[in-house]
Structures are given as structure tokens and as C-alpha cells.
């Protein structure tokens, strides 16, 4: 009697919960993303911070080269077009449009090359993450690594609140010549500081920024990282992890409030509303949000928020720079001017910009009040449209993904579209946006490894 051979069922045909979990740890091939997310404090101390993604893009390219042919996500051609447009915009770097001042100098070229390196590195990073298998880098692991970076950001925020004067000269800062390191844009990236001192409330007050580039970057990054922290440490966490998550979120409220960051607060409000509407347990989410809101209103932190809302000192500056940016961008709507420009006057005067004899005159460079405006001045309306189309397309494409990662990633894509009018995405924020995009792509491209919560 011949015994029939047992039927072999491919693992991909099994539901996620039924698959063997033979790998508990990510493979060695995933080390670059682990080095970025888990080693971020070290990169910050070295003076690289968000620029570490440029360094780590090198081993990512090597890994991609070895596993050709490669997969690419739907809609990623828009990002490639955005990158191609930025290359073309270099043709106008030397131009000085009407209403602006300044000649082509090393600082403008360095800023352009730095942004170009970041854009290319982020393209590489997305392809790298999307071409790693779930065995090589489980979704749960990647989400929890983002959660670790959230804890790092909270620690940096507390440092900014309680030791705002903390700063030091990084090794990279010491190595660079003053002609490069002295550029304001570069200096913000390579000089580690705990907080920015600003007169937001009518007096000097610290706004946490460690371990990111500046205070607004801290706010944007925290609002994205907290989403993945909740998914990794609460949704897919056990009792101990959930208890730690509640404690961490309570502690995080302190630097979040002291950041005086209205964009961050609005983003958290949008996230809470999204959770109530699209969450798996909307009633529970609503109850938790109500309890958290009541606790906040009864705490001393609510007074700080009220003071910040009563002092919208940056509104006039933003209105001037946005209007000037749109006006200048209209003179080169297809390819832009490759980089930011300085405009004459400010929201208070039309005579001049910042100078040695009037350091209070002027304003931030055109394009520094949000990624949308940066794209307009550097790549014209065409570049801004490609950026919007890329992230709006991701919302449309992944809206139907009702897994925790699908819901969380779609929320991040919505926040990107919100933040683009108030936050400059470069560098750390845009990196987190595209890691979130890669998580969505990985989730849709193959069955998830998450299975049941543990």
C-alpha cells in the first residue's frame, strides 16, 4: 500500500496567527534602521542627528544592490519626480528674484546639497525597508523601535525643560571648517542643544528640542512617534509594557506642554479625534480621551497652554513669510529657486532685512515656515504639488487597511498634510514620515507578522 505524500501548504497561505514564529529577532540585514532608531542619541551627540540617515544610506544601498530585482511601492514615482525636479532646480540657485537679497554663496550651495543628500537617502531608506522580508524585520519590531525613539524624545524634552542651557560642541562641529559649520542651517543640525530660548510668552522661555534639530522638529516628531508608541507598547503590548506606556505618556505631557508648540497640540487633538472615529474601540477611546482631558484641565499645565494661546506672537511673522514665499515662487512656478531666499523687510518694516546694525529686523528665510512653502520656493508649485499628491495618494491607497498599523500609518499621512503648512519637514520629521509610509507599504504588500497581541 502506497502512503500518499503529505500535502505541503506554503506559509504565505496560512493566516498570520497560524504561522510559525521561528524568528523572534530581526536579521542582521536590518541593522541600519536599528542603528538609526535605537542609536539616535549617539548620532545626536556626534553632531549628525537626522543627518545619520545619509550615513546609513550607504549600507542600505549595498543591501539593496545584493538583492536585485527590487520592489517599489505604488505612487513612489511621485517621490522620484520630486527628486528629479530638485536636481533641475539647481539651475536657478544663482538667481535673486525681485524682493529678495543675497548672492550665490557657499551657504546656499551647502544647504542645497544637504537637502539633496537627504532626499536621495530617504528614497533609499523606503526601498530598503520595503524589500526586507517580515522575517528579516518584523513589523512589530520596527514599530517598537519607533516607540524607543519616542522615549528618547521624551527624555530629551525633559532635559530641555529642566536643563534648558545644556549644550556642547559636537565632534562633527569641531571637524568642519567655520565656513560650513557657521552656516545657520548647518549649525542647527550639528550643534546639540537641549532647548531653544524664545520669547513666546512675553518673556524668555525654553522650548525643548533635544535630540532633534529645533523646537518645531521636536513637536512634529513627538506627535508622530507617540502614535507608533501606542501601537507597539499598548495595542501589541503585554501587561508590563502597557503599564510602562501609561507612565511614559503621563511623563511626556510635561515637555509636550512646555514645548509651547501649538502645531503639536493641534496634531494630538486630530489624532485623538481620529482614534475615536476610526479606532477599534471608539467608546473606550473616547472615555480615555475624556479622562485625560479632565486630568489635564485640573493640572497646572493647563495654565501654560492658556498663556501660549493668548500670545500668538509668531502669526505676523508667518503671514509675512508665507505671502512673500508665494509671491516669489510665482516668478518660477515650475522649478523654483533651488533653496530658500531672504526677503527685504519684515512684518513690521519694508525697508530692510536683518543686518549687523539691526539684528531684530528681518525674519526667517522664505520657505522656513513649513515644508509646503519650502517646496514652493525651492521647486516651484510643481514640486509642492508632487509632495501633496504623494502623501494624499498614500491616504487614499491605505485608508482601507483597518489593521492597527494601517490605521496608525494613515493617521501619520494625514498629519503630514496638516503639518506641511506649519513645519519644515527636514530632516528628522520627513524621515519619520517616510518610515511610516514604508510601514504601510510593508503591511499591504504581505501578510503581517503581528498576529495576536502579546
UniProtKB/TrEMBL annotation:
Transmembrane annotation, as ranges:
42-64, 76-94, 109-130, 142-168, 217-236, 243-260, 280-305, 317-338, 372-395, 416-441
Q: What InterPro entries is this protein classified in?
A: WaaL-like (IPR051533)
- The biased composition feature labelled Low complexity covers 1-16
What UniProt keywords are attached to this protein's entry? Membrane, Transmembrane, Transmembrane helix
Membrane among keywords: yes
| Region Disordered, annotated ranges | 1-21
Extract the signal peptide range: none
Q: Please give the name of this protein.
A: O-antigen ligase family protein
